[in-house]
Specification:
heterodimer; A: alpha+beta; Immunoglobulin-like; TIM Barrel; 10-stranded antiparallel β-sheet; 8-stranded antiparallel β-sheet; B: 3 domains; 8-stranded mixed β-sheet; two-stranded antiparallel ribbon; glycoprotein (chain A); glycosidase (chain A); signal (chain A); alpha-glucosidase activity (chain A); carbohydrate binding (chain A)
């Protein structure tokens, strides 16, 4: 969220006006982390072996005699041996899920200690259902399972010696585990006090010494590098469990592009970290951290959240691998050839627990991943509107003043945010009454315009007994412990602080009680000075600890169940947001959809929270890198994502801020935020023409809210991302695989390419198919090609570039209002962008936007279709819900859908006020709905079919008399 | 009373009783004549851009580019909606507020929403409004009486200042004459002894003395400069350390704090409770002693530098030639205020003659005395001139719309200091002077800036122009800009500050009231007549 430290640097260290960037030395490089060093050294030894012509063979093998088929044959277990440590027992457990996902688990059995094996349990939606039909068969050299359609078969083999797991489709390798022999699970050992081998060295002596190398050194190396203790800067990690790291190579021999493993400030198509011409020296790091002012110039540095899923893509197929590990993890990426990818995963602790997602299309991969970790929850409708934030709005009157200014300028806004300074001494939920003397009145004043407030609640709990949250947490013994077993103490905004251990199940119910604004049954403290319109922002939950190593918690701190922080670090932040989300949901009866914004996250967080990309800076580079970051998170499950508009640090010039509003208006999460040291920059403060341009951009977002909400419905059911990069929408268009500066909004057909540079008047957009695309504003028709074509489109500050894919129908509400809830009964405009073949379709999903009534069938989900014949174009509205009740809404499979539900009835009389059709070949002779002749205007222009570019023809049908909840059909006679 | 201007600005100057019942919903009465169909039931958009069927007016579909065809529906976002508010005052609202499900406070008749949604509360609102208006009128009336007293104060000031200008002008003339007279004497004496002095100045002893003095001056300047830098750095480090929320997010900050604590002999801030720490602040153990001894040394060095070497040189003759002679040489410079010393030295270097009559015991004393007379006379003239300029400026400012207003109504408030205690700090605003922030505990005081201007975005002389005073160039924030204040004022019976806020770091917003802004309502257009 912010950093005072940044300001200090400016003063103390910067005589020159250079750009302040992250203090990279405050965060570890691979070579400063012993397990990463060991993992990379292992890979280097393997490479050296192969280079020098020696054979490198993994010491791990599966003992065929121990294989046991379980669960009707869809699962087997067996003992894995390491030739290095034959006495150590490892167990392999491989399962096929009903949707073809394969889970591979390996753990040390009967060891000195237990490895952390609960990461998946936090990430997974539920225990996956095993395949009823797929059966493993044990052969001479391998265990094998084959499933899928005859012409599109998946074969998974687990080879005995060495142990290799291979997923093939139609005979072609998709994913290979341990193909390079880098699998290594360091088993638990007893510390042996070593006597230094005295090898006298005589200077100048020529004779070569024969040093007896340990027998395993070919694989493990000669030193016990950082096994038992590790010091970095002033912190010493005591490592009472000793070395327990995990190394595994995951290869995609037939995929030349990999995406995912967020969060990193880099391209969507992950640049390499190994091999010739590698972009980065260090592997991608997954270790949630508060990396303020992170570099935007592309880096493998870890950021606030981690999702260990990697997608591999080629024109033939898409697959993905989800690695359920919660400890610090480093991932090397290399492309030995343009068409293949090798990755090497190095984790500090935990079992091996890997999910192979067979695809073979991007959409199927998303579905497979959503069945594992859940899809994004359908957000409250208002949370897709515009959010106004600043560190800090300083008083309740400040909030009222900001609201007044927005309304005076007629700029829509739905949510005002309060950062940490609302709280007394940063005791969150306790108002600083000097500046917020009347919080309930303030909340109600905001709610009077159908708006909400989002208020920050951070995880650091000020250690003072006059803070009920601390006092009760201490009494209930719910805080994380330090390595001595006492309450962990660290420093954050609130000074000396403690952290609630959300791994402790006892914390959950208690924490939820704190949000009961009507009071608790047991009469203890709860946040009674809040209302149902308050939603929550969880920041600093990596956790950020100012005096900790890498600004986070010591790894030898202890969580519930005795697990070390090292084992659970990357999950820690997510549990805070998950619990908050449930607390906000359950504070009312009946429940309402919660909105929680989190900075830290892990796989599965999408079920509970939205996230943003943290403390970015007000520079063009940061604006630009925010786009691939949003895309990378989106394809990794976190669809409800955005970057702070304007940049958190700095004072963006008006042109930059204006462009950034466009980026924000086309991000799933649209919030402007600013650091306490910045000038105020609410949109109404901009000078003309910027103010009017930004007003129109925000209004455009509001007008397209039906598109966004409909996209979220789809995402919440199918797992498809809301913002879709080129490769997802057009998976066979190779020229689009590395494009990450343009993307589609859901399935709407909107293609956006935000401008992220100064002084731009036009840009090129890649159209990756043989289709017509229309300029959203001007209706200019552009033509793509099968191989993909770059077209030059105008990009003035006022608009775009924004295109509509031919074949789409966009529902919008074009009457600007002060907040989104005030648009409830506004009429719709349907924009029909005809495809080259003269057809189009689109969807609209609507519900009350706040409750869970949609899960009881209270919603509408409709389809608009345009179909052409020689003489007519028919545009019709059809119900989708009754045809697909089981896949209509998130979280429930409805058996039937009743079109006369309460919500649909409430929309009675809400009409389509306008239908715009782009690309008709000529002016219709008449337009009818039933017997009624409709009024229309027509502007001549390009037809959808053909090769010509130019402004497309435009038909506008006025007040067609069609209602949004009804079936109807309009015929254009040509 | 603060609400009223808002109401006034939203209300439209049309008598509610007179508004015809509009045939076309939402049309402002002044435009009613234009909302009639032209021939063949067609109608022209008000901007003339299009002709549409009369039936398309208010059909909840926007046809006209200027939005004029939908005055009553909200279909055109660029139009306005008029609510007659019978019983109260008619008002226009943006079309974006029409049919949005909210009852607009501006439309007490509820006409902005479909019938049945919003109740007509105009009777009640009208009563409240009129009561409020009456209250405001009373306030203005009383306030304007006070304001009138400010204006008459300005008139008295004018008389006083004019008299002062006349008398000061006279004084300047007299001082100038006096200076001419003394200068003549000095010029005469100068030629007599300059040669003798020049010779004495060649003495090696004097040369050495001069170079010592120069070196000492240089060292002292260097010392002071270092001292200031040290103070600044200590301030920065102390602020860093005691910043209420020590942020060790960046380890180098922690190291800097720890280093400073070690040097300053302070306990680590993490180990000290906040209140304990505050009590100890400002009495850092080591630099207090240091300060005392260094201040003394500085004083000594300065007094040595102030030694009048030329006088000593001349006096030296007495000792060299006649040990019994009494020493009457005086170091006049040491009796002069520092600001005059350079002028004094300058004059003296040219004045080395002895005045013939009065025959003082030796040359040097005479020269010195003469020198002092000359510099005194010059100083007196400068002072008088300065005073004249000030008085003239004051007179000029008195009725300058850019300063005290065209009636001089603000003169009374010149340097009037107002205070507001916010708990941690007391804020003091001296109108036309300085604004300051005083810590209620610990006693530190920061300048928030000096008065720089009235509201720059308004024309001088307009009422809004005087609604804001800007103070700039205050003490620099250690991690931010120079402090500044915007003081927003409105009409009130008291000169007082109401609220203090810091919307941006080190940029304060203070609100307050003053009778100087209470113009009688009648003078602000014709609003009153309409009611």
């Amino acid at each position: 969220m912010r950093s005072l430290a940044a300001a200090l640097w400016l003063l103390l260290l910067l005589p020159a006006p250079s750009v302040v960037a992250v203090k990279e030395q405050d965060f570890k490089k691979c070579h400063e982390s012993s397990f990463c060093r060991r993992g990379r050294a292992l890979a280097d030894r393997a490479t050296e072996h192969v280079k020098s012509g020696e054979k490198w063979k993994s010491p791990y093998s599966l003992d065929a005699s121990t294989i046991v088929l379980e669960d009707g044959g869809s699962r087997f277990t067996g003992r894995v041996r390491s030739s290095l440590y034959p006495e150590i027992k490892f167990e392999l457990d491989v399962r096929v899920h009903e949707d073809g996902v394969v889970r591979v688990r390996m753990d040390e059995k009967e060891g000195l200690r237990k490895r952390y094996d609960e990461a998946a349990s936090w990430a997974l939606l539920k225990e996956p259902v095993l395949s009823p039909s797929s059966k493993w068969s044990v052969g001479k050299k391998e265990v094998k399972v084959v499933y899928g359609a005859k012409k599109d078969q998946v074969e998974v083999t687990v080879e005995f010696e060495p142990l290799v797991v291979r997923m093939k489709r139609n005979g072609k390798d998709q994913v290979v585990l341990n193909g390079q022999g880098l699998l290594h699970m360091e088993h638990f050992k007893k510390k042996v006090e070593k006597v230094e081998a005295e090898v006298p060295v005589v200077e100048g002596e020529e004779t070569q010494k024969v040093v007896q190398l340990p027998p395993n050194s070919w694989f493990e190396g000669v030193t016990e590098d950082g096994w038992w203790e590790e010091t970095w800067k002033t912190w010493t990690d005591t490592k009472p469990k000793g070395p327990e790291s995990l190394s595994l190579d995951i290869n995609f021999p037939n995929h030349g592009h990999v995406y995912g493993i967020p969060q990193h400030a880099t391209h969507l198509d992950l640049p390499t970290t190994k091999g010739e011409g590698a972009s980065f020296n260090d592997p991608y790091r997954l270790y949630n951290g508060d990396i303020f002012e992170y570099p935007a110039s592309s880096s493998s540095l870890s950021l606030y959240g981690s999702i260990p899923i990697i997608h591999a893509h080629s024109a033939d197929s898409t697959v993905a691998v989800f690695v359920a590990v919660a400890s610090e993890t480093w991932v090397d990426v290399a492309h030995p050839t343009q068409k293949s990818t090798e990755t090497h995963w190095i984790s500090e602790s935990g079992i091996l627990d890997i999910f192979l997602l067979p695809g073979p299309t991007p959409d199927q991969v998303f579905g497979q991943y959503a069945r594992l970790t859940g899809a994004v929850q359908l957000p409250p409708h208002w949370s897709l509107a515009y959010h106004q934030c600043r560190w800090n709005y300083v008083s309740s009157d400040d909030i009222r003043g900001v609201q007044k200014r927005f309304d005076e300028e007629d700029i829509p806004v739905d949510v005002f945010w309060l950062d940490i300074e609302y709280s007394e001494e940063h005791k969150y939920m306790i108002w600083e009454k000097k500046y917020f003397p009347d919080p309930i009145d303030m909340l109600n004043d905001v709610a009077a315009l159908a708006r909400k407030m989002v208020i920050i609640v951070d995880p650091h709990i000020k250690r003072t007994v006059d803070y009920p949250v601390y006092k009760e947490g201490q009494e209930l013994d719910l805080f994380v412990k330090n390595k001595q077993g006492n309450e962990f103490e660290g420093w954050c905004w609130s000074g000396s602080s403690a952290w609630i251990d959300f791994f402790n199940p006892n914390s959950w119910e208690w924490y939820k009680q704190l949000y009961k604004f009507n009071g608790r049954e047991d009469g203890k403290w709860s946040w009674t000075e809040s209302t149902s319109t308050v939603h929550i922002w969880n920041d600093m939950n990596e956790p950020a600890i100012f005096n900790g190593p890498e600004i986070t918690m010591e790894k030898d701190s202890i969580h519930y169940g005795g697990w070390e922080h090292r084992d659970v670090h990357n999950i820690n932040g997510m549990l805070f947001a998950n619990t908050t989300s449930q607390a906000v949901k359950e504070r009312t009866t009946p429940y309402n959809r919660p909105f929680v914004l989190t900075r830290s996250y892990y796989a599965g967080a999408q079920r509970f929270a939205a996230m943003w990309t943290g403390d970015n800076m007000g520079t063009w580079e940061h604006m630009a890198v925010g786009i691939p970051m949003v895309l990378s998170n989106s394809i990794s499950g976190m669809s409800f994502t955005g970057a702070d508009v304007g940049g958190f640090f700095g004072n963006p010039e008006p042109e930059m801020l204006t462009r950034w509003y466009f980026v924000g208006a086309f991000s799933p999460f649209f919030r402007a935020h600013a650091h306490i040291d910045t000038k105020r920059r609410e949109p109404y403060l901009l000078a003309e023409p910027y103010k009017s341009i930004v007003r129109e951009i925000i209004r455009l977002r509001y007008s397209l809210l039906p598109v966004w909400y409909t996209a979220f419905r789809e995402s919440s059911v199918t797992g498809l991302p809301v913002t879709r990069p080129q490769y997802v929408v057009l998976p066979k268009n190779e020229a689009g695989f590395s494009i990450d500066d343009q993307y589609y909004v859901g399935a709407s057909g909107l293609l956006v390419k935000p401008i992220t540079e100064a002084g731009i008047t036009e840009t090129t957009v890649h159209i990756g198919e043989d289709q017509v695309y229309y300029d959203f504003y001007t209706g200019h028709a552009y033509r793509g090609s099968v191989k993909g074509k770059s077209v030059t489109v105008p990009a003035p500050l006022e608009r775009g570039p924004l295109l509509i894919r031919g074949g789409s129908i966009l529902p919008s509400r074009d009457r600007p209002r002060r907040s989104s809830a005030l648009m409830k009964r506004d009429p719709f405009t349907l924009k029909v962008a005809l495809s080259q073949s003269g057809n189009a379709s689109g969807e609209l999903y609507l519900d009350d936007g706040e409750s869970y009534d949609h899960r009881e069938g209270n919603f509408i989900w409709r389809e608009f279709v345009a179909e052409s014949t020689k003489k007519t174009v028919t545009i019709s509205s059809k119900d989708l819900a009754s045809r697909n009740p089981d896949s209509a809404v998130d979280g429930v499979e409805l058996a039937i859908y009743n079109g006369g539900n309460a919500f649909a009835n409430a929309l009675d009389g809400v009409r389509v006020e306008r239908i715009v059709v782009l690309g008709l070949k000529n002016k219709p002779t008449k337009v009818t709905l039933g017997k009624a002749h409709l009024e229309f205007t027509f502007k001549d222009g390009m037809a959808a079919a053909g090769n010509k570019e130019g402004v497309a023809s435009k038909l506008t049908v006025k007040n067609p008399g069609a209602f949004i909840t009804s079936d109807w059909s309009i015929v254009l006679e040509l | 009373m603060l609400l009223l201007p808002v109401l006034l600005s939203l209300s439209v100057p049309v008598p509610a009783q007179a508004s015809p019942s509009p045939e076309v919903k939402g049309v402002h009465p002044s435009l009613c004549p234009k909302y009639v169909p032209a021939s063949s039931d067609r109608w022209f958009c008000l901007d003339g851009s299009r002709s549409i069927p009369w039936s398309a007016v208010n059909d909840d579909y926007c046809d006209c580019p200027d939005g004029s065809d939908e005055p009553g529906t909200g279909a055109c976002s660029n139009s306005t909606f008029f609510c007659p508010n019978i019983g109260h005052v008619g008002a226009s609202i943006s079309a974006t507020r029409v049919n949005d499900g909210l009852c607009e406070p501006e439309c007490c008749d509820g006409s902005d929403e479909p019938s049945g949604v919003c109740p007509n509360i105009c009777d009640q609102v009208g009563i409240e409004y009129r009561a409020l208006l009456e209250q405001e009128t009373k306030l203005r009336k009383t306030g304007s009486k006070i304001r009138a007293s400010y204006i008459s104060f300005a008139q008295k000031e004018k008389a006083r200042l004019e008299a002062a200008v006349t008398s000061t002008k006279r004084e300047v003339t007299a001082r100038a004459d006096e200076l001419v007279r003394i200068k003549e004497i000095v010029d005469r004496t100068e030629s007599l002894s300059s040669a003798a002095l020049e010779r004495k100045k060649l003495s090696p002893l004097f040369k050495s003395l001069e170079s010592h003095s120069e070196l000492l001056a240089a060292l002292l300047a260097l010392h002071k400069d270092r001292g200031q830098r040290l103070d600044t750095l200590e301030d920065i480090l102390s602020s860093l350390r005691s910043g209420y929320n020590p942020n060790y997010q960046d380890m180098a900050v922690l190291e800097a704090v720890r280093g400073w604590e070690q040097v300053a002999g302070l306990p680590h801030i993490n180990d000290v409770k906040k209140d304990e720490d505050e009590s100890g602040e400002g009495s850092l153990p080591f630099d207090v002693q240091d300060d005392i001894s260094s201040e003394e040394t500085e004083r000594q060095a300065e007094s040595i530098l102030n030694t009048d070497y030329l006088s000593l040189l001349m006096e030296h003759d007495e000792y060299a030639e006649s040990p019994q002679a009494s020493s009457t040489g005086l170091n006049f410079a040491s009796y002069l205020p520092n600001s005059l010393t350079p002028a004094f030295n300058y004059i003296r270097s040219f004045t080395s003659a002895i005045l013939g009559e009065n025959s003082p015991p030796n040359d040097s004393a005479k020269v010195s005395r003469l020198g002092q007379s000359l510099s005194d006379a010059e100083a007196r003239l400068r002072e008088a001139e300065e005073r004249l300029r000030n008085v003239q400026q004051e007179l000029e400012d008195l009725y300058n719309p850019g300063v005290f207003g065209k009636h001089g109504e603000w003169k009374k408030l010149d340097r009037l200091c107002l205070e507001k205690d916010t708990g941690d700090y007391t804020y003091e605003v001296c109108l036309f002077g300085e604004a300051r922030q005083k810590a209620n505990s610990g006693g530190s005081v920061h300048s928030l800036g000096h008065f720089s201007s009235w509201r720059y975005d308004e024309e001088p002389g307009t009422p809004d122009y005087y609604s804001r005073q800007a103070f700039v160039g205050g003490a620099k924030c250690w991690n931010g800009p120079q402090r500044s204040v915007q003081v927003d004022l409105s009409c009130g019976l008291e000169n007082e500050l109401l609220t203090v806020a810091e919307p941006e770091k080190c940029e304060y917003l203070i609100t307050g009231t003053t009778p100087a802004l209470c113009t009688p309502l009648e003078s602000e257009g014709n609003t009153k007549d309409e009611l």
